[in-house]
């Protein structure tokens, strides 16, 4: 069996996150003519991973509290409630998607 098949999915996700963060840091470092060490990228990845885990637990708790087994946009909006700018951006996106869905549904009739 190959190593990738045996690998824990969480470890594969974390490796993909490390790669994505590394790319973003490299691009920004080049743009700003700065350097970032692999240790910095590793620490940033760990911090983002911990935040993702916290967000996942909160979203799961919100949906369970509402008696649902699926996380919805309402849960995401509740999570973002303390960051007014983020909440407004997410709400705007959700509203535009709902409006587009309604418009698409009406055009099919």
Automatic annotation (TrEMBL):
One of its GO terms (molecular function) is protein heterodimerization activity. Keywords: DNA damage, DNA repair, DNA-binding. It comes from the Eukaryota. Belongs to the TAF9 family. CENP-S/MHF1 subfamily. One of its GO terms (cellular component) is FANCM-MHF complex. The keyword 4Fe-4S does not apply. GO terms for biological process: DNA repair; replication fork processing; resolution of meiotic recombination intermediates. Pfam families: CENP-S. The keyword Repressor does not apply. This is Kinetochore component CENP-S-domain-containing protein.
């Amino acid at each position: 069996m190959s190593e990738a098949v045996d690998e824990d999915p969480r470890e594969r996700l974390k490796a993909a996150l490390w790669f994505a963060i590394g790319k973003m840091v490299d691009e920004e470092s080049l743009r700003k003519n700065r350097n970032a060490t692999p240790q910095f990228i590793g620490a940033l990845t760990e911090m983002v991973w911990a935040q993702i885990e916290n967000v996942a637990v909160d979203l799961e708790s919100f949906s369970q509290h509402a008696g649902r087994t699926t996380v919805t946009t309402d849960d995401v909006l509740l999570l973002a409630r303390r960051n007014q700018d983020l909440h407004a951006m997410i709400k705007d996106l959700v509203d535009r998607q709902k409006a587009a869905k309604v418009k698409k549904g009406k055009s099919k009739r």
